[in-house]
Amino acid sequence: MAKSLTYTCNECGASSTKWSGQCDACQAWNSIVEEKPLAAGPGKKSLGARRGKAIPLTDLATIGEAPPRTMSGVGELDRVLGGGLVKASALLVGGDPGIGKSTLLLQAAARFARNGLKVIYISGEESTAQVQMRARRLGLHESPVSLASETNLRDILTTLEAEKPDFAIIDSIQTMWADHVDSAPGSVSQVRTCAHELTTFAKTHDVAIVMVGHVTKEGAIAGPRVVEHMVDTVLYFEGERGHQFRILRSVKNRFGPADEIGVFEMTGKGLAEVKNPSALFLSERSPAPGSVVFGGLEGTRPMLCEIQALVAPSPHSQPRRSVVGWDAGRLAMILAVLESRCGVPFTGLDVYLNVAGGLRITEPAADLAVAAALVSAREDAALPKESVIFGEISLSGALRPVVQTENRLKEAAKLGFTSAITPQQTKQVAASGLSMRQPRDLASFVEEVFGE
Ligand code: TYD
Ligand code: MG
């Protein structure tokens, strides 16, 4: 039987019968590649040789009270994992090439090994000598971690079966290849097959397996998104190359909260955890016009950060709107609300908005802080020093309260802030000791804070 070719998107893994320049599913350009179909299984198998076993849901004896977890001792990592590494689970750590994934995982390997786990680090990108050199540089060369340099899936599974580790690291999934799949390493079917087999192995052999996946911009290499649905936990390691901060973010976690973040700093001796990120993100702040401190929340943890705006007369017929670390659509919305509800026009002005420290904010709670930064920059008037701002803005110009007010205020108080500007329905937290200013809506906020 002649095999027909299929076409697969390297970004999202969607397949189609014809090639096109743009993927219909995820709208990515130039990501569709030709792919041979997966080999059919050995004949018809409607009757399995083994009968599956079903157990009652109430049968707690099978799993115990909670999944067994091991802590690494690195608070930032353990929190992102949802309280430690879960036995028999599959994890994916994605991130841009060179962001520090191998460094992070080698350090984690050493920590878990010190805490009693049997750890093996399998690199498909570097030789064992190179990994040893890196370990030496990180001061970890005496850690009881086994190393292997391997890319063939069959060999890796054999190694894992023989070594029986508790924790295995596969660096990276794009370099692995299964010999029964007829395409190059890094292609969607190779990456999927390898990830699937490793995930199954993790469940059946009681080992936690971490797979590293490079985020690819374009070209013939499949990105980590094509295996996200197979694994239990998906973490992304992010950060700007120029900045030393790195953020480990959980976007999916079957064993804990998603959207949790851990903050690290890349130093000459590897990654160091940042226990008090708010203090760090605010450390180089000077209260100038356009600078506002936002009382944010990342996952379950409050985090203060600085939002900066610059507004300048535009030489162009279409003024620039440039955003780093926030949503451009949301900026357009805030500008429109300021213009039509508060009489603060931005016509003919270039607007630049930046979240300091390379942080990326997704919360609508930053609306009020962004509006404050924009008006402050436009009026060239600094905001009251030592005040922290948060609140959501609706299209009518009303201010809406946000979640976890208490935690945000307490974090602000802890860092020496003395006042807060929040929406009206926000409950006062006596314990925080902050003086609260609660404008009725955005127009009265602008009037109160910047009015003559
Ligand atoms: P790496 O872990 O190799 O990235 P990835 O596996 O995500 O591709 O990290 C590479 C970068 O990290 C490299 O540019 C150098 C930097 N680095 C340090 O700054 N300090 C260190 O101690 C180490 C090991 C790496
Ligand atoms: Mg690497």
TrEMBL record:
SUPFAM superfamilies: P-loop containing nucleoside triphosphate hydrolases (SSF52540), Ribosomal protein S5 domain 2-like (SSF54211). Keywords: ATP-binding, DNA damage, DNA repair, DNA-binding, Hydrolase, Metal-binding, Nucleotide-binding, Stress response, Zinc, Zinc-finger. It comes from the Bacteria. GO terms for cellular component: cytosol. One of its GO terms (biological process) is recombinational repair. InterPro entries: AAA+_ATPase, DNA_repair_RadA, P-loop_NTPase, RecA_ATP-bd, Ribosomal_Su5_D2-typ_SF, Ribsml_uS5_D2-typ_fold_subgr, Rubredoxin_2. A motif (RadA KNRFG motif) lies at residues 252-256. PROSITE patterns: RECA_2 (PS50162). ATP binds at G95, D96, P97, G98, I99, G100, K101, S102. CDD domains: RadA_SMS_N (cd01121). Residues 350-452 are annotated as: Lon-protease-like. Plays a role in repairing double-strand DNA breaks, probably involving stabilizing or processing branched DNA or blocked replication forks. DNA-dependent ATPase involved in processing of recombination intermediates, plays a role in repairing DNA breaks. Stimulates the branch migration of RecA-mediated strand transfer reactions, allowing the 3' invading strand to extend heteroduplex DNA faster. Binds ssDNA in the presence of ADP but not other nucleotides, has ATPase activity that is stimulated by ssDNA and various branched DNA structures, but inhibited by SSB. Does not have RecA's homology-searching function. Belongs to the RecA family. RadA subfamily. The middle region has homology to RecA with ATPase motifs including the RadA KNRFG motif, while the C-terminus is homologous to Lon protease. This is DNA repair protein RadA.
